[in-house]
Specification:
With 360 residues, the protein is of the alpha+beta class. It contains 8 helices and 18 strands. The mean pLDDT is 95. The structure holds pyridoxal-5'-phosphate (PLP). Pyridoxal-5'-phosphate (PLP) binds next to β12, α6 and β15. Its EC number is 2.6.1.42.
Length: 360
């Protein structure tokens, strides 16, 4: 029998939100997972505790020097069961991120067991509506209260849970408007672009806000050296359908290796599409567009799922993709991906993991 992770009970449970009006990431469940690291002792005190504010030193290394990494995944409810989707991939990636910031690795199996037990305790919070899920946010941050740029001696991991609706609000297949960023860059090779580190997102906010002010949903980043090659969107990897072929930028060290990207590449092959991972320049995209060969564009990410792009603006040039409508291949990938996730379709790759009912 699996060891039970210690549970510190709440005095009373919180009121659950109205499921018909769920937004993204605003409401949190009753409990969170907590794990601590102390130099010399390693990771210790894995427990499920009430979701509540935490105390942190004003000198904590994460606050000053940004030693903080995170993950994002989802749990779904289908036919009464709660299911996680490829969670082991997220814990593999969190270790890649931790290593890049000189933070201590965590036992992936232990973390997955802790997550399953946390989600079991909070299973009544998993929403069941179309496009809804329990968003899962693991975060690890330095807690040592000492100034001076050096790796912290102490860390904390938390996993918090948020019942959520669609990322862009309303219809998850609403085609988005994307601004191709030509001034700022997100990441460079040799930097931290391939890791899910907090600072990457802080560095993206100014460009994102500028794009929002111009009426765009997100920014498409170009490479950090020549600003010529397409990398990824704010929180999604990017795909193009060119002459019927599914094309995405190859992982070059500055792009986040998305788990949805990996899943969609596998699904596209299964569905019989030709798939290509390679360098894609913005000029090449315009050339295909002029010839009518850029048939579809979509982003992939845990939060946004598979999100069609209806418009791409680069400097003073604009591409309207597929008349601003969701394309056939985008739709087919979306239907298959969400079908497997929710349990409506078979899962030949064993991507779904049913959360057990633990006896407490
Ligand atoms: C910068 C960035 N790129 C891509 C992705 C997509 O990754 P995944 O499919 O693992 O959610 C995300 C979201 O996590 C992201 O933040």
């Amino acid at each position: 029998m699996t060891d039970l992770v210690k549970l510190e009970q709440r005095q009373s449970l919180k009121e659950k939100p109205d499921q018909s009006s769920l937004t993204f990431g605003e409401v949190f469940t009753d409990y969170m997972l907590s794990f601590e690291y102390t130099e010399g002792q390693g990771w210790h005190d894995l427990k499920i505790v009430p979701y509540a504010p935490i105390e942190i030193s004003p000198a904590a290394q994460s606050v000053h020097y940004g030693q903080s990494v995170f993950e994002g995944l989802k749990a779904y409810k289908h036919n009464g069961e709660v299911v996680l989707f490829r969670p082991e991939e997220n814990f593999k990636r969190i270790n890649v991120s931790l290593e890049r910031l000189k933070m201590p690795r965590i036992d992936e199996d232990l973390l997955l067991e802790g997550l399953k037990q946390l989600v079991d305790v909070d299973r009544d919070w998993v929403p069941e509506g179309e496009g809804q899920s329990l968003y899962i946010r693991p975060v690890v941050f330095a807690t040592e209260g000492i100034l001076g740029v050096a790796p912290s001696k102490n860390y904390r991991l938390l996993i918090i849970l948020s019942p959520s609706g669609s990322y862009y609000g309303g219809d998850s297949l609403r085609p988005t408007k994307i601004y191709v960023e030509d001034e700022y860059v997100r990441a460079v090779r040799g930097g931290v672009g391939f890791a899910k580190v907090a600072g990457n997102y802080a560095a993206s906010l100014l460009a994102q806000a500028n794009a929002n002010a111009l009426g765009f949903d997100q920014v498409l980043w170009l490479d950090g050296v020549e600003q010529k090659y397409v990398e990824e969107v704010g929180s999604m990897n990017i795909f193009f359908v060119i002459n019927g072929k599914v094309v995405t930028p190859s992982l070059n060290g500055s792009i986040l290796p998305g788990i949805t990207r990996k899943t969609v590449l596998a699904l596209a092959e299964t569905l019989g599409y030709e798939v290509e991972e390679r360098r894609v320049s913005i000029d090449e995209l315009f050339e295909h567009y002029e010839k009518g060969e850029l048939e579809e564009v979509f982003g992939t990410g845990t939060a946004a799922v598979i999100s069609p792009v209806g418009e791409l603006q680069f400097k003073d040039k604009k591409m309207v993709i597929n008349n601003g409508e969701t394309g056939k291949i985008t739709q087919a990938l979306y239907d298959n991906y969400t079908g497997i996730q929710s349990g409506k379709l078979d899962d030949p790759h064993n991507w779904r993991l049913v959360v057990p009912h633990y006896e407490r």
